[in-house]
Amino acid sequence: MSNAVDTIETVADSVQQSSGPGSDWILHHVMDARELDFEPLFTIHIPQFPTILGIDMTPTKHVVFMWIAALLVLLTFTIIAKRYKKSLVPKGIANFFEVFILVVRDEVAKTTIGKGYERFVPYLLTIFFFILFGNFLGLLPWSATFTSNIGVTASLAICSFFMIQIGGIRQNGFIGYFKGLIPQGIPPVLLVLMIPVEILGLFTKPFALAIRLFANMIAGHFVILALIGLIFFMGTVLVAPGAILFAIFIYLLEILVALIQAYIFTILTSMFIGMAVHQEH
Amino acid sequence: MDFSLAWLGAGLGAGLVVLGAGLGIGKLASSAMDATGRQPEATGAIRTSMIIAAALIEGVAFFGLVICILLAIKA
Predict the structure, then answer these.
(1) What digits encode the pLDDT tens for the residues A33-64?
(2) Side-chain half-sphere of A233: how many Cα atoms within 13 Å?
(3) Is A107 in CB contact (< 8 Å) with chain B?
(4) CB atoms A215 and B59 under 8 Å
(5) How do A42-45 and A35-38 pair as beta strands?
């Protein structure tokens, strides 16, 4: 009993004496950077790229990890496609990914888009696996999560936006698509309200997609860094067991969230495509 | 400049956000449990819908959280 009291006293004294390092280091670990740092060992400086049209084209850490994820997706699926050429019964890696591919094709695309879903499946598969690989890459030591960058998620949401509009316009015609946004049989007085609301709705849905993915990914890393930083903030090693235990729990939760967020982005994009293509309210 | 109110706002805001999200997702999970109890064959469909709805509610919660983080960092 007195042992516990002593421990608490030691921690309290330590908190009183230590000044704490401030919170800038959390941001440093989460945000984009100009160089890849593998902290105590070495730092790789990214070479300067030329400036095109006033935009500095030097790749940053998140860009490098986007390339890595894109390369991984390309490699994985080229291998899987080659395996499918040999025999329709998948084995090994093709077997593992077939589960995900079938879920995206059947439960996501077919149920939400309905008729004519086949032409959207490639885009949905790409988006699902790119975000999935990106989220999982961020969980490795010394790596960065590029999906926790609002620029990246906004670009993905813009791609989805274009898919939704092009899918809807292709199916219903340019004027027909915008006419179809307004539900039938409403009194003309309400049109003044409905038209801006529906047009705004076209933009808020991808915006929500971007913010949802960005905030989920950045929040997880923030919490882990804050918990580990608690050890340094309190200045004593006695809080280490509790902090590390919590951090491990949040890490496991992060793995689940990585999977769920990729799935949610895909199924919401697919739902919006379905609502744009088949516009019967 | 005195930024203490901004930090206070960020902390209170984060707490309120978590309160809202917790209540919303708790109600959702409760209905999902009831529905699964009534009809165990529909567990798969209920689970999928539950996850989608939970992610949407969490998305709204994260809007508020992002504003709180912006307050705490920019101030």
Answers:
(1) 888 888 777 888 888 888 888 888 889 999 99
(2) 12
(3) yes
(4) yes
(5) antiparallel
Of A214, A215, A264, the CB nearest to B52: A264
Which of B62, B66, B73 is nearest residue A27 as measured by Cβ atoms?
B73
Q: Which CATH architecture has domain B4-74?
A: Up-down Bundle (1.20)
ipTM higher than the 0.90 cut:
no
CA dist., res. A193 & res. A184, Å (int): 14
Nearest-Cα residue of chain A relative to residue B55: A264
Condensed to tens digits (0 to 9), the pLDDT of residues A154-163 reads 999 999 999 9
CA contacts within 13 A on the Cβ side of A42:
3
Interface of B with A in 8-47 (CB under 8 A): none
Q: A262 phi and psi, to 5 degrees? A: -65, -45
CB contact under 8 A, B62 and A27: no
